[in-house]
Amino acid sequence: MHHVPFRPGRWMAALALSLLCAANSAAAAGTSPYRVVGYATGWEPAQTKDVGKIDTLIFAFAQFKDGRVSLDDKHAAGLQKLLALKADNPKLKVDVSVGGWTTGGFSEAASTAEGRQLFADTAAHMLSSQHADGLDVDWEYPGHHESGIKSSPDDKANFTLLLKAVRDSLDRIGKTDGKHYTLSVAIADGPFVSDIDIPAINPLLDWFNLMTYDFVNANTPTTGHHTGLHASPLIQGDGRTTDRAAQQFLAAGVPPQKLLIGAAMYGREFADVKPEHDGLYQTYGHFQDMVPWPVLKQHFIDKQGYVRHWDKVAQAPWLWNAKTRSFITYDDPQSMAAKAAYVKAEHLGGIMYWEQTTDPTDELLDAIWKGLSR
What percent of the chain has pLDDT over 90? Predict the structure, then answer.
């Protein structure tokens, strides 16, 4: 789910050996077959030095009201800050996402041909008028109402029809503008794609942004790795993992190069956790909070009683505070490197992440970029 915002291991020694090679390959992000795509609710000027490591920034979010996609003045100004980065980095693409967790209206808009056309045409006009490069549709989720939005048994067919209308509108305005507007989706996995016809939407999309994070949250019965790569020995049944998500889409016929797995630049904290296995995959009293990466580094990782652990099977870290029985699951440079290695091993398209401003020093971005560039 996409939210409005809010200790490296031994791999670094090996990474240092390749640092010279990476430094001499300034254009690696542009020449690598793998892509780095980042969602951005804003932009920190200090991060501009590393913008060459990003292939596509996706501005979050455009407004979706009364069936129309638009940008108010505040959000348009935010998008223009991202677009201004293209002056020094002409290879950078800047897309716009519409939707997000708790954003409703999709089911209603997609239910009629007129509603689908209005969505598609207003989205295409918004991109063209703002000089953006593509649209990312973030309906969470067709056929589901966990986020409090309306859903319908017809969402499965209508989602395909909605994306078809958008693709047609983007192509139509693209001919006038002399460019190809990209179309992507932010999409979950497992039971949350039960009402999505993956083979049907595949030809309409340039790529899939797999939201392989938030696997454990306030609505799940246990703690766990919220963005784990593989299944921990402690995971129950068909619990969600990044690998299982990727394999689900590959099995549905999506070409591997169109799949971008997700990485999280924030953690999730659980309180009153049962202490077995240092809190991993245990029941808990309540979900505490989302914790941005800088806060994790400054206040939590191996500090104040929070001890870092590493799951060698899942390729994921977690923090456990035995005194307070608090548990935090998160991504760090070591797990980012593992995800990059997985992308290369499976010949996937790359890595996307949520969210740019929660990695202000680009430490996690750098780990992703180096992992994919080597």
Answer: 89
> DSSP secondary-structure letter at 121?
H
Tokens, residue 72: 């108010």
Distance CA 81, CA 83 (A): 6
- Domain spans of the chain? 11-266+332-373
Predicted confidence at residue 373, as pLDDT, reads 93
pLDDT, position 146: 86
Which DSSP string corresponds to 252-297? TT--GGGEEEEEESEEEEEES---GGGGTT-B-SEEEEEEEHHHII
Which two structure tokens, joined as six digits, stand for 53? 């490591």
Mutual angle of helices 333-346 and 363-373, in 10-degree steps? 30
Look up the pTM and report it: 0.92
- Active-site choice (44, 108, 114, 140): 140
pLDDT at 204: 98
Q: How confident is the model at residue 30 (pLDDT cuts 50, 70, 90)?
A: very low
Element (H, E) at 61: strand 56-65
CA–CA separation, 125 and 321 (whole Å) = 51
Whether 140 is catalytic is yes
Which CATH number applies to 11-266+332-373: 3.40.1190.20, 3.20.20.80, 3.30.43.10, 3.40.50.2000? 3.20.20.80
